[in-house]
Structures are given as C-alpha cells and as structure tokens.
Amino acid sequence: MDFGQIFNLTAGELIGVFTAAYALCALGLAMHFGFTGLLNFGQAGFAALGAYGYAFAALKLGWNMWGSFGFGMVCAAVFALILGLPTLRLRADYLAIVTIAAAQALYFFFGTEKYAAFTGGSNGLSEFGGDFYGYNPFPVGRYDLGIITLSEKEIWIRVVSWGLVAFVAVLLVILTRSPWGRTLKGIREDEDAVRSLGKNVFVYKMQSLVLGGVIGSLGGMVFVLSSQTNQASTWVSNFTFMTWTVLLLGGAATILGPIVGSAVFFMFLMFTQAFLEGLVNIGALPFLSIAQVGQIRYLLVGLFLMLLVIFRPQGFFGNKKELQFNG
Amino acid sequence: MANIEQIAKGAIEPGCAKVDPILVASGVTRQFGGLKAVDVAHLEIPRGKITALIGPNGAGKTTLFNLLTGFDKPNTGTWNFAGKDLAGVAPHKVARMGMVRTFQLTKALSLLTVIDNMRLGAQDNPGEKFFAAFVRPLWANKEREITERADALLTRFKLDAKRDDYAAGLSGGQRKLLEMARALMSKPELVMLDEPMAGVNPALTQSLLEHIKGLKENGTTVLFVEHDMHMVRHISDWVVVMAEGKIVAEGPPADVMKNPAVIDAYLGAHANSDLGDVEIATKEGN
Questions:
Q1: Interfacial A residues in 206-225 facing B (CB < 8 Å)
Q2: Which of B130, B131, B190 is the mutation pick for testing A, counting most A CBs within 10 A?
Q3: Inter-residue contact B253 to B52 (CB < 8 Å)
Q4: pLDDT of residue B272
C-alpha cells in the first residue's frame, strides 16, 4: 500500500474545487440556519440554479463570464423570493417542507427531456466555461505544488473558487457582527420578541434567505465550472444533506466552521476511499470489492456524524453555549 | 396615587371616559370557535398613569394584549393609540409608534448576550439595514449612543454585572427585568407588561414594583396584567377588571376591591384556586 499516495490524495482535497463548492453552499446554510434559524433543506436547488443559470446564460444567451455569474445569482435570488413570500410568515417547519419539495421539483425540471432545448435534458449542459477559462492568467502547463500536480485550468478554478470562499467569509463576518446580524440572531432566538421590539421580521428573514441562497448558487457555479459539465443528477437531495453534514461538522453559527467542515469532510472521504482500496488491493479485506468501497465510506461518514452529534454537538468551532445541533 | 378627578371623566363605570386617554378601544371582540375570549365594548387607558388589568385566569387579559399590539387579529373592533388608528397595524409598527409590550412567558433572547438584548431594543439604528451594515462609519456613532443608554438602563435595573453573559444564564426574575429594560430602550410612551411579577421571587418583586413606579415618574404610561389583586393595590392608579372577556369594573384600586362584580368574578372563576386572596379583598372592602 502506497501511504505516500494516500496522503497526497487526501491533502489534495484540502484545496479541492468540490471542497470550496461545498464550503460556499454550507456558508449559505450557515446564514440561513446558524444565524437566522431558517431551516432550508433545499440548498441543492439554489446550487442547481446557480449552475444551470451560468451554463444557460453562457451557452444559450452567449453571455460572458460576468453576465453568466450574475444570471446564476439572480436565478437563485428569485427562487428565494418565491419560496419565502408564502412561507416566511409561517412557522420555521413550513420553510423546511417547501424548500425540500421545491429543490426536488427543480431536479425533475432540469432532468426532463421536455425542456431539453433549455436544460440539455438528462445529458445536461457542457463546455460553457470558455469565457471563464479565457480569463486564466496561468500559462499552459503542469504545475507541481509539491503534493499534487495540476494543469493551468485546475489551478485557475481553484484560485477563483477559494477566492470566492474567502470573499464570502469576509462578507459574512462583517454582516454577522453588525447590528443587522444581531437582529437576525434575535430572530433565531424568538421572532415574536424581535417583532415586539419594532423590527420587521419578515424582511430580515427574506434578506437572509436570499443572501444564503445566492451564496449557495456560487457554490453550484464553481462546482460545475471545474469540469464544465452540469447534469441534473448532481442536484439531488443528497447534495443538500452533504452540505448540512459539512455545516454541522464545522459549527452552524460560525464562519470558519463550514470551510473547515468541508475540508475535513472531503479529506475524510478521500482518505477512506484510498485507504480501503489499498486494503482491498493487498487482500486484507476479502469480503469487500473495490466497487463497494465507494459506498462503505458513506457509512463511515454517517457513523462519524453520529459520534459528532453525540460528543461535540456544536461542531468543531461552535460555541457550545451559543448554538448546538438541536433542530 | 392620583386623584380620581385627574383620571376619569364623569361617572366611574366599566368603559368610562378618561380625562386624557392614551389608548382607546371600542367594540373589540375575538372569538375562538364558540368562545368569545374578548368582548370589550369600550376601554380607555389614562396617559401617564399606571393602570392594572386584572381578572381571573382565562378572563382574556393576554388575548386583549395580543389584539391591541397586533400579535393577534380581532373579529371586530377599532382602537387607537395617541390618536393614531391601530386596527390592522403590524406588531413591529405598533412598537415603533411607541407602544411596546412584554410577554407573560419571558422572551429573553437566550443565546444573545444581555447587552445585545438591550441594543436590539433600540429603534432607528441604521446598522440594522442590510446595505448600511457593511459600512461601519454609518452606524458606529448610533451604536455607541445606544450602548451607553443600554448600560445606563442595565445599571438602573442592577443587571450591569451580567452585561456580557448570555441571557440564558439569568434567573427567571432577572429575565423579567431584562425584558422590561429592553422594552424601555425604544423610549416608549406606553409600556404594556404581561404579568411582570409571575415567577419572580418575593425579594425581586419589591424591586420590580419600584421599577414600574419609576417608569411613571419618567413620564411613561404603564398598563400591566396581573391576577394577584394585592400586588396591584400598591402601585396602580387605576384598575380595570376583566372577566369572561368583558370589562366588569374599573376604578381606583381601593374602590374596585369593594365592587361586588369583582368579588363575583373572582369567586365565580376561582372556585378551585386561592380563595384566601379573595377573602382578604372582601374584608378590606368592608
């Protein structure tokens, strides 16, 4: 077994594009759940709208990178408005029900052949990153980063996606430490009390829903830009729940939490994959096939999450006094 | 205690007119299925005074509070606060107009610090707007001013030692104090306290009563719900009695205690509860 390679693969995930994409989606959820108390179980829908919005604008409308990014974000914002208008006046549970259903509806909409002219149907959309990679300042070549070697495109998408993570994190730090953020935390604790103090709770919840959704759409965009392929099958509810896992790993009411949570989550997935495959290859696990390893690691993730909720319910960075996972 | 002439205009009876009312409600009804929880023909609350709203459990006091502050919608009725019509106005707008309430089950924002709870009570902080929140210079001055006011109030309510603790760590009585202090951050004209004394230990009750009196001295009108008539006697200028959704009596505390309608209301509804209170009230009436 090549431990050097296992280590390199695992460390590579630390700067992976998917790690950044999930970190962005989880930062959006932190806004929703950690700082406002909104239960959004449809983050996959927001990410899908970002991804399809970008791909559609770039391919079908011929827009450049900036316009396509903007279009993806606007799609997510409109989706948030539509979901929020009827549900944010009601109890938190209703938003959870509506978001999970709406995200599922989007998944079917994007996957159906009926609208293939817009969405590409089950094949999805691909090769929409031309303008994005046109901005790439890195000359063509292979770049040896010590533990992994990346192409110029792989470097560029990593720079952009982690740049976005840093930008969003700074944005959220500023916002959550402002009086605006304080009002949101008040709403998380008891919205009637905040109402009785003269704040328009509905408007605050809507702002939070839109902001977190738009951040999620950025995650969706970098997710599909890495391979320039976007298929409906990516945006299943599994995506949402993995985002929740990432959020709870790191700590729901923190900014650093979702980022580190995402890194740990993907390093754990990669490590277990590589390690178990290594064990199977040397015959140490005769009852497992290589194909089963991919499934087994998710069982381990589930176990890991259970242990976390039992022994460290506030996540890695959460303040136990401030917020822990209690639904 | 103020003179009756300074408060009531004309005969003292349920729904009587006041010299200077701050809150006037007419024909307010709220039905829950077949039950008419609130059925108030007319009610006026005198400005600058402490008015107690008393009555047995289930009399509709809290429901009336919810209706007047916009937290619940009545089936019929109109009401106005300082001359402004309030029917159908959203609760946060009611609060901004200067009519702030507290809750029977204390709503301290547990996982915010005490000082943040207080800051949240202030109005017109530009930093509470989404885009302004990014630009600290736009709100730093206001925030400083709010914090100073909050610290002064915390000192007055003897919560200054708890300033940076989470509100979850306060005792029940301290939470009541915090909720009251937080309501004052908006400089309200009328404070509506829903059972401020419930669940508060006797030592703290005295200081709470003093704080309520202090509000009046600062020119704030107080309307508070209570169902212990003895608490009420010490601090209120005027007492309104509700039973089964209706206003059954009102007047100065000493007179109201003698009123047969009040004794009826308490005896009738309190058949299984603390009769001692009613008995004392009756004796004092005689």
A1: 207
A2: B130
A3: yes
A4: 47
pLDDT for residue A327 is more than 70:
no
Neighbours of B117 (CB within 10 A): 30
> What is the arithmetic mean of pLDDT over A148-167?
95
Residues in A 264-323 with any Cβ partner in B closer than 8 A: 321-323
d(CA B279, CA A271): 77
Flag whether pLDDT at A256 surpasses 90: yes
The angle subtended at Cα B177 by Cα B118 and Cα A324, nearest 5°, is 60
CATH of domain A3-311: 1.10.3470
> B250-276: per-residue pLDDT in tens?
999 888 878 887 777 765 555 445 545
Q: A16-32 as b/e, with b when 16 or more CB fall inside 10 Å?
A: bbbbbbbbbbbbbbbbb
Q: Alpha-carbon distance B77 to A110, whole Å?
A: 51
Contact B112 A186 (CB under 8 A): yes
Which is more confidently placed, B74 or A319? B74
In Å, how far is B179's CA from the nearest CA of chain A?
Answer: 9
Q: A189 to chain B: which residues are within 8 Å by CB?
A: 109-112
Q: Do B107 and A192 touch (CB under 8 A)?
A: yes
Q: Please tell me the distance in Å from A252's CA to the nearest CA on chain B.
A: 14
Strand partners, B30: B38
**Contact A197/B at CB under 8 A:** yes
Which tokens is A33 given? 């759940």
Residues of chain B positioned with their CB less than 8 A from the CB of A193: 103, 107-109
Q: How far apart are CA A45 and CA A243, in angstroms?
A: 12
pLDDT higher than threshold 90 for residue A85: yes
| DSSP structure class, residue B213 | H
Q: Give the relative orientation of helices A43-59 and A92-111 as an angle to the nearest 10 degrees.
A: 40
ipTM: 0.87
Amino acid at B39: D
Burial A146-184 (b: 16+ CB within 10 A, else e): eebebeebbbbbbebbbebbeebbebbeebbebbbbbbb
Using an 8 Å CB-CB cutoff, list chain B residues near A195. Answer: 71, 91-92, 95
Could you state, in order of their start, the residue ranges of all structural domains in chain A? 3-311
CA A224 – CA B186 distance, rounded (Å): 49
Average pLDDT over residues A226-231: 94
C-alpha span between B172 and B167 (Å, rounded): 10
Q: Which tens digits make up the pLDDT trace of B197-213?
A: 887 888 888 888 888 99
pLDDT at A95 over 70: yes
The pLDDT value recorded for residue B94 is: 95
Higher pLDDT, B231 or A279: A279
B168, two tokens: 């979850």
Provide the b/e sequence for B75-109 (b: ≥16 CB within 10 Å).
eebebebbeeebeebebbebbbbbbbbbbeebbbb
Task: Spell out which residues of chain A touch residue B176, defining contact as CB-CB under 8 Å.
Answer: none
**pLDDT tens digit string along A179-224?**
999 999 999 999 999 999 999 999 999 999 999 999 999 999 999 9
- Asked if B192 contacts B102 with a C-beta cutoff of 8 angstroms, the reply is yes
User: Cβ of A179 under 8 Å from any chain B Cβ?
Assistant: yes
